[in-house]
Design brief:
Elements: H1 4-12, E1 20-25, H2 32-64, E2 72-73, E3 83-84, H3 85-108, E4 116-117, H4 119-122, H5 128-136, H6 138-143, E5 145-152, H7 160-172, E6 178-182, H8 183-199
Parallel strand pairs: 1-4, 1-5, 5-6
Antiparallel strand pairs: 2-3
Helix pairs in contact: 2-3, 2-8
Length: 200
Amino acid sequence: LRDDVMKEKSFASSKQVNKIDAFISHNWSVPRFRKFIALALHFNLKIGAAAALLLAMILPGLAALGLQGFPTAVNKSLDLQPHSYAAQILMLPTFLAALLFGRDVIAVFGLEGPVVFLDKACINQSNHELQRRGIEKLGAFLSKSSRMVVVYTDVYLQKLWTVYEMAAFLVMWPLSAMDVVSVAVAMKLAAFLLWIYLAR
């Protein structure tokens, strides 16, 4: 969204719907990569876990059959069953790939994920008149949203706009319909997983 062309492409990717599964509330000042990691963990965690679990079941089976390329090893000190080196090496990359790109793969097969409202894509950012009209209809977007996903950072409650979004949503929906996703926790979890993988 750095120029008008990208803004138009983002807006063109949105579509008119009657129901929104999740309204994403965030601060524009927070780096996009950090918000993306937090949202990926929120929306795609089950996909990543399922992909890693599937790999964990398939590769040891291939190793037990003695297929080339899937060597086995036994940790005698822990009295573990033979396991696949490939599973150890590929487990985290598979999890992360599914976490970050799983929805794109699923979309290839015609399966859609949740319908979300993201202001940068759903409100025209290059046409000021359309932008004004979109902002004026914010209450309608909230009323059609089943849940709100708060991408929380230290500045979230310091910005009037995000406080307004949260307050407006809670007027219409119970607190149980709100999910708070911490960017700091998401980044620490990602760093921890990477550290575990590299330390092996």
